[in-house]
Every structure is written in structure tokens, then in C-alpha cells.
Write a structure and sequence with these properties.
By secondary structure, the chain is of the alpha+beta class. The chain has three domains: 3-273, putative glycoside hydrolase family protein from bacillus halodurans (Beta-galactosidase, Chain A, domain 5), CATH 2.70.98; 293-624, Glycosyltransferase (Alpha/alpha barrel), CATH 1.50.10; 640-721, Immunoglobulin-like, CATH 2.60.40.
Amino acid sequence: MNKKKIFYFLIITVFLAQTGFAQTNTTAINWQKFLSRNDLVFDTLTTKWEEGVFTGNGLLGAMLYMKNSNALRLEVGRTDVIDGREGSPAFEKARLPIGHFELRPEGKILKNTARLDLWNAEANGTIVTDKGTIQWRTATLSQTNVIVFETKVSAGERKFQWQFHPEVSISPRTKSRKTPNGYVANPPSILAMTGAVEYCKQPMLAGGDYTTAWAAKNKANSKIYYISVAINRKQSSVDEAIQTVSNGAKDNLQQLLNVHRQWWHQYYPQSFISLPDARLESFYWIQQYKLASATREGKPALDLMGPWFRYTPWPAYWFNLNIQLTYSPLYAANQLDLANGLVKMIDEGKENLSRNVPVAYRHNALALGRAATSDLYSPVKVNPLRDTTASESDLELGNLTWCLYNYWLQYRYTMDESVKAKLFPLLKGSINYYLDVMTKEEDGKWHLPHTHSPEYPGGITRDCNYDLSLFRWGCATLLKINPGDSLAPRWKDVLINLTDYPTDANGLRIGRDVAFNKSHRHYSHMLMIHPLCIMNWEQPESRPLIEKSLQHWLSLKSEFAGFSFTGSASIHAVMGQGDKALDYLNQLFGYTKPNTMYLEEGPVIETPLAAATSIQELLLQSWGEKIRVFPAVPSSWKDLSFENLRTEGAFLISAVRKDGETKWVKIKSLAGEPCIIRPNMEGKLQIKGQVQLKDLGNGTYSFQLKKGEEAILYKNENDLSLKADAVKQDGRINYWGKTLSKLTAKN
């Protein structure tokens, strides 16, 4: 083994040790074959971003589609290329465009095809012209900030053109919204060359610049382009960009790709899901690819577009639903390292969370408004008496508490005491704001002042259900974390004496002063049902209100957007209604684009990712300190399997369902917590493992595993031979993309 091979071997070994990817995978799955049936496949690329193929490494990324009928476009993005001026997160502090590379053949394009290879995290395709062919492949390398674009050409296409086109450095919101007075673009970009490396420097008015650099390595009938983007807010980023590209071009491409692929080959098997529905299975795995392409441990938190830039009105973070849904599928997928980006952003933004609160409450309270950059500066203006200068967005009090619900999930799915310790003062500060502004009225109940229910027109109301839900959840959670805290009596008092959720003949209202009588895409008034599950279907007394509220919301659909359907699917899933949940997921696909992206004027990445959560909830749920296996399986899904889905309490759950019957359920404890489980298995159960099974009735059992121990629930010994594996599907494989032909699955 030569020195360079030893070097790359050591990189891989150290990487696996650091990331914890050494966990044993016991499925029978052939991952390459399995994921290939879920690849994005295009019989033809178009000029639409939402019909392109995409790669990324959690920071840097590229979207490839057609610029016009005779040129390919490689759009470059980097998630931390953000303006640094003082002002609005949507203008002065917005995500900024970078530019794109254009590949123009010598001849006229007759045909172009593309495929996104999920297993190897690279895209490839062929351009056929009237003069020859150009075969290409591209990847955004996992372990270095380099995009590789390789071409192999026939004789007639050796002189194709390759050119970089910088974009004007200005907030993309200017394309669709009124520009603030005095707001101007950053200075023009500067194209230059150093040695073999070309680059484009983009100065910023706030200081520093960002640079796109690229270099080509020529071989016989082949060219390899190495591309990178760097940003420096104080000095110039040119040297870093040039050095990154130069280093990449010096290395052997195959060795770079081997390291890149190794990361992905360890990423996917952290959990496994296979469905008889080819469309949903493929969709799910493309979301898992998308998540790891868009965010990583130590990289910026995921915003609304990830590293795939497109002009949009939403070039920042939104905190009244979007980021919470974006991160929701990572917990059950056993990808907690990726989910840590949100936790880290909240930790680092604590100073601004305090500044976001009116001066009178900064001594003990924290809050977060509707939109911000990663610094989390977004003031809130909630007071016991309504501030008449406050806009609707100024009155969104619950956003931080909802973000901290995700933080709580990070703790519950890991049972990492250090996470809980950091969460407690944040959640305490968030709930303190509610305590500071609540008042007791003549009915002897605590009431909340005027706040805003996200996105509901005219949704400013007292006793807003969005806030009452989060306030209740927050007090109950603080008591779980630290029942001996000096404020514990106040939290208990709130849980006893907080006013009931405002309701009327149609179910849950927006709040005390506002009925739910308009179509509303957001389900903010039903947050107690999902995701908080503090009002749930397992409470018989709650069922009439849940059903009435849900049906009334669904009866007014004219303003529904994509996440309305994921919310509908998830609520039906926690009600155990799998067929209805599946119906709403299928309705969502009328809004989802061929590459599984989702647009509302611009990219809003949370919707397809939330659908991945809805799919998980059909197979496994763990709210309320109880694990539910196959709780909402659609009646048409007879065969299912999954392995190493994670639950609250830090359990890894695996299960196989065959001919409509659960055959076995494996539980592995990662933290030694008590286990209460509903395995969805009728009749007398057997257990394999050194534990005592206690029957709690109603199909629910409890037992205690030590950390690292596992047990298997089953009925028949012969069923244990069944492996978690790819289930058979009828219909099209490679459902997503843009295919002209029908392909039949061969399993």
C-alpha cells in the first residue's frame, strides 16, 4: 500500500471513529441495489430548478439543470454566503446568490439524460448532440469543500465551452418584494486568474468578500473541473478558495471519490425503511439524501433552501413552523449528529434571544420572532397590555418554545444529560416570558395577552391556542427536568389554573377573540394535538374535540399549502388512521416537484422533509413515553420492514411485518431507560433476552433493559428467520425525476 493510499485509509478510519458510524448494521439489505431503485432518474433535463439533480456536503452544493435548450447550468450555492449588513434578515442580512457554470456543446443538443445515484451521492448523465456526446458526472465531496464536475467527450465535442456567470450580489427578495429605502446591491464582482486557477471575487459592503474558484485538469477526451466557494467577512477569501481548488486538483480523483463515498456508505445504514409503495419509499430516501447534503455536524443550520440557491422571497430562517418541520425527520432516522445543527444555533444565539425581549423582561426571559439569520436576532413585543405599534410578526410569542421542543427531542432521543443541562435555562427563559405577561382574571384562571397565531389572517388574539399549547408543554417539561427548581410551584400552578383552550361549535378556535372561520394552511391552533401530543387520541375525553377541530380545518382547503397535507397526514397518524394519513401524503405529491423539492414562490425545504416524518409516524411513534410499533399502517401495506429507527428514551427499534401481521420487534436500549411498548402483535408473546415482560393490558408491555442490551418480541420461532429487507413492490421504480418510460420493479 503506497503512502497516499495509507493516508486516505487513515482519514476514513479516523472519520468513522469520530462520527460514531461504527454501529453494526444487521439487515440483509444490499444497500447499493436497494437505493438504486429509489434514484432520481431523468429522461430529459429541463430549464427548471425543481427538475434538476442536486449534490451537497452540508455547506457547499450544486443544482444541475438546463440553462436553455442548448446549454447545461450548474448552479453553485453555499449556505453561509450571507450578507452582513445591519437590518432585515430578508434584505441586509439575506442569503446571497453566487453564480452558475455554463456548459455549452459545440453541436445542437438532441437528448440529455441524468441520474442521481443516491448510494454514491453523485449525479451523472449524457448529452447527445448532432456532433457527438458529452458524458458527465458530478459530486460535492463529502470531506472537502470541492465540487467535482467530470466530462468525457467524443471527438466532435472536444471543444465545448465552459464559463462562469456571476450573479449580482443582492438579496433575492428584491425580485418579488418592495426594496427598503437605501438598500443597494453589493459592489460588482471581479473575475481574475492566478496560475491555473480562475476565480470570481465578490466584495461585500459589510466587509470581506466571497470567492468562487475553479480549475480544469485535462486528459485525453476528458476534463475534470474542481470548484470551490470561500467566504471571509474581515479579509479576502481569494487565497482560501484558490488553495482549496489547487489541493483538490492535485489529488487522485478516484481516491477523493472513495473517501466521499465512504462517508455516504456509512450514513445511510444508520436506519432502514422499506415500503411496498414505490413512490413513498423513493421519496423517503431522497429526503434522507437531501438532509445529509444540506446539513452536517459542525455546519450551519438548515435554512429554507439549503445549499441549492434559487431566487426566493425567503432568504433567511423562519421560526414559526419551517425550521421545526425541517429538522423533524432526523430523530427517528437515527441521525442525531445532523440534528445537532439546530441545537448549536440556539446555544450560540442565547445573547440575542435575551435582546429579543422587551427591556422590562430581559432579566429573566428569552424569545424569538418570526424570521432571522443564524444570529437569532428577531425582537418580540408582547406585553400584558397590547403594544399598538406591534405588527403580527412582533406578537409571535411561541416560536422559541417550539424550537426548544426540537431541542427537547434531541435530548429525549439521545438521553444525553449534557443536552438536558443546556436546554433547561433556555426553556426556563422562554417560559418565563409567558409567566411575566400572563394575568389572572375574575374566573380565577391565568390568561395570556394579545399574541399572534402564525399566518392566520387577523390572528391577533388573547389566549391564543398556539401559545397556550406551548406554555402548557413548557411548564410540564420543566417540571420533568427539574421538579425541585424554585419556580416549580409556579409551573404547577399554571398547569392547574391556566385557562382552557378556547373552543366553539367547530372545535378549537384560533384564540379567545378569533374563531377559526377562514382557510388556513398552518395548523398552529392544533399544536397540542401534533406535534406536542399533549391532547391525543389515547385520551377518550379528547377524541370529540380532536375530530371536530381536524374536520373543520380540513373543510376549508382553499389556502392549503404543502405542509398542510403533511400536518394532516401526521395528525391522522397519531390518531391511528393510516389510510387517511396515506391519502393526505398522496395529495401532497400534487404539490411536490419532480426532484422532490417544494416551492412557494421560492424554495421552502421543510415540506418534503416533514412528509418524511409523516412516513416515519406510520411505522413508529414514541410520544408520551410509550413506543408504538406500526401504529398507523395503511391497509394496503401488507409487507413492511424497518431497522434501527430511534425513539424517545434512546431505543433502536427494528420490526418486520408480513402478510399484514407483525412478525417480530427488536428493541435495543442505548441508555438503560424503562421501556413501555405497544408492539402491535396479538396473542401470547415470547421474548428473547434476559428481561421480564410485564403485560400492562391493551396490547402494551413494559420491561427494563440495561444500556446496550436488546430484546426481541415475537410469537413464532420460525418468524425470527425473517430479515429486515427490501420488500416487494408493484409498479414503477425510480418514481421521482422525469421519466418518459414506465419501469417495473424487479425484486
